[in-house]
Amino acid sequence: MSRTARLPRVLAVLTVLLAVLFAAACGKEGSPPGKGPAESRLPEYEVAKDFQLPDSPTWTRAKKRGYLRVGVKEDQPYLGERDPATGTYSGFDIEIAKMMAASLGFPQDKVHFRTIASANRETALQNGQIDFYVGTYTINDKRKKLVGFAGPYYMAGQSLLVRKNENDIHGPEDLDGKRVCSATGSTPYQRIKADYPKAILVSYDTYSVCVDNLLTYQVDAVTTDDAILIGYAAKAPNELKVVGRPFSEEPYGIGVPHGDNALRLALDDALEAREKNGDWKKAYDATLGLSGVPAPKPPAIDRYPAS
Ligand code: GLU
Fold first, then answer.
1. Ligand 1 centroid – CA 158 distance (Å)
2. Furthest-apart CA pair in the chain: how many Å?
3. What is the rounded CA–CA span in Å between residue 153 and residue 141?
4. Can you give the residue range of the structural domain that contains 51?
5. In 10 A of CB 285, how many CB atoms?
6. CATH number assigned to the domain comprising residue 287
7. Which residues pair with 225 in a beta bridge?
8. CB of 152 within 8 A of CB of 275?
9. What pTM value is reported for the model?
10. Cα–Cα dist 81/78, whole Å
11. Residues 176 and 275 in one domain
12. Residue 120's closest CA among 111, 107, 129, 110?
C-alpha cells in the first residue's frame, strides 16, 4: 500500500488511540482505573521494628542513606505504572516492593522508585544505582550469573497481543513474515529470535511503545508476558486482544546485587511471610486482580545455594 493510501487509516487509528487515552484519563465508570487503583484501597504493610541485616552490604548502605532505592517499570498497567501528574507509582510489582521494604524496616515514604527498562536491569543492580528491582523480571540461569533473585513471587507466561480485528495470529507459529514487537533485553524477545526466526522482530525499550506501534499498524503483534499484555488489552478492550495460550514460563523474581545472599534470603523470608499473612493476596486483588484474573496460588520460593 502506498504512503498516501495508508494515511487515512493511520489517522483513524490515531483518533481511536486518542479516544482510548482520553477515556482512560477520565476514568470512565465501569472501565478499569487509568492510573492504577485508588490509594485508599491498597493494603498497609506492617513495618518490621528494629530490623537488622548487617551481613548485607546493600541493606547497610540503604540504612545509612536513610531510604531504599528500588528499580521498577512505569508503563505496565496493573504491574508498575507511574502517574505523570503526581509521580506516584502503583501496581502489583510496586506493592511487592513496598511490602519487601516494610519487612526490611523501611516505611513507604522511605522507598524511592526509579524507572529502569528491561535491558538496563542488570547494569543498574551491578553499579549500585538501585538496591533491588521489582518489575516483571524473569528468573533464569543466564541472569543469575549477573544478579541474584529472591522469589519467585508470581508465575507469568509469554503470550501475544494483537489488534481486535486480527484473524490470522493465534500463536507463535503464525508469526512467519509478521512484524512482532518486544522489549530489548527481554526473555520474550530472545525466545522469538531463537525459536521463531521467520518472524520479523522489532524492539524498543518499552512495551508501551510496542503497543502504540500495534495500534498504528506499524507491527502486527506485541509479545511479552501474559500479565503485561492483559493489562494493555484491559485498557483498550475495543482495539486489542490477547490470543492463544502462554508458550513459556516466566517466574518473576526480585533482582538483588549479585553475591548479596543475605539480602536475597531475607527477601525470600519476607515473601514467604507476606504470602502466609495474606498481604500478597490483598496486594494482588488491589492491583493485577483488577484486570479480571483471580489470584493464583503463588509459586514456591526457590532458596538456591550461593554461587
Ligand atoms: N519477564 C520478561 C523478562 O524479564 C519480560 C518482561 C520484561 O521485559 O520485564 O524479560
1. 9
2. 67
3. 17
4. 39-156+250-291
5. 16
6. 3.40.190.10
7. 158
8. no
9. 0.89
10. 7
11. no
12. 129
Residue of minimum CA distance from atom 6 in ligand 1: 136
Residue 199 contacts residue 192 (beta carbons within 8 Å): yes
List Cβ neighbours of 173 (8 Å cut-off, separation of 6 or more).
196
Which residues does a 6 A CB cutoff place in the pocket of ligand 1?
118, 135-138, 183, 186-188, 224-225, 250
The Cα 291–Cα 285 span in angstroms is 9
Cell of 180: 512482532
Nearest residue to 130 (alpha-carbon basis) of 68, 174, 177, 173: 68
Residue 64 to residues 59, 61, 118, 234, 299: CA-CA distances in angstroms?
Answer: 9, 5, 28, 42, 34
Distance 179 CA to ligand 1 centre (A): 19
Hey, is 121 helix, strand or coil? helix
* pLDDT mean values, one per 10 residues, the chain (307 residues): 49 48 39 48 94 98 98 98 97 98 98 98 98 98 98 98 98 98 98 98 98 98 98 96 97 98 98 98 95 94 93
How many Å apart are CA 98 and CA 4, to the nearest integer?
50
Q: Are strands 132-133 and 68-72 parallel, antiparallel or unpaired?
A: parallel
Distance CA 26, CA 15 (A): 16
The verdict on 113 and 55 lying in the same domain is: yes
